[in-house]
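**Folding the chain**
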Amino acid sequence: MKRALFIVMMVWACITYGQKKVNGTIYVEHPAIIAVEAMQQAFIKGDSVKVASFLTDDFKAYYGSNTNKEDKGRDKKQFISQVRSWKNNFDYVSLKRSEGAYPDAIEYKDGKNDDVTWVQTWDHLKGIHNKTGVSLDMPIHRLFIVNNKDNKIKTMINYADPGAMEEIGNSYTERKNGVIYNNHEYINKVRLMIHAFENKDFKKAYSFYDKNAQFRSCNMAVDEKSLTLDQMKEMDKIMFEKYDITSIDVVGYPDYLNYDLGNQKVVQSWWNMRLTRKADNKKIVLPILFIDTFNDSGLIVDEIAYYSESLLAK
């Protein structure tokens, strides 16, 4: 039995090994990598003459995620023009290797790529568009084909999030994004909710929230998990055990913002919460901003509170 099992394992090992096939060599250091990285640094510095020196006359650049089957790519002249455009339109530009990443140079041995080397890069691009203020802060992955004969780049394939570029294009024209109301049903609900808390009518106060509502404050860490409604009830209980509320007074007036993008329904309201700390009878005025997001049923599903915890500290 043991002998049979051994034979099976040996056969499986042979089959597994037989499935592997070497098709070239990967290099962590290579002249093609030096050329690619030097070209990219010249690009972000706006040195179009130096960029051109790294490119073949028949150079083409493509967007890897482009689904247009008729796309012919950008030729050398168009690419050089883009270098000048970046120099004129972006400030504080930098391109660095992504943390923990490094380029690969691949020399394939498939008979089709014997005269070229493929280079893969993983970088992080930063910059500010100087007309719109849109920020670029994103990973970017590129594939290059480099001639072995003269070490010049003949092809570049670019993979990056197009969202920032789309935002730049959109920012050149004015666009309304909804309507702001100073009187609205949702404003009324927020006022009723706040004053219900002021009068310790908790049943009424919590009735304005969806059962799956989430709560955050500016004092929470960015990666800290939002509080549930039950957790918020416990927090409120502790608050009322430590403080008496004299009044909660509106500052200015609330705004209801009905956004077109995402159809978001948001009420912003500003308040002065007048408290007395029970431990030492200290009077405290706590400015607080609430941002409440409503669902289609008219219930609050998300609430963010902005206030200073230092004002409550002894």
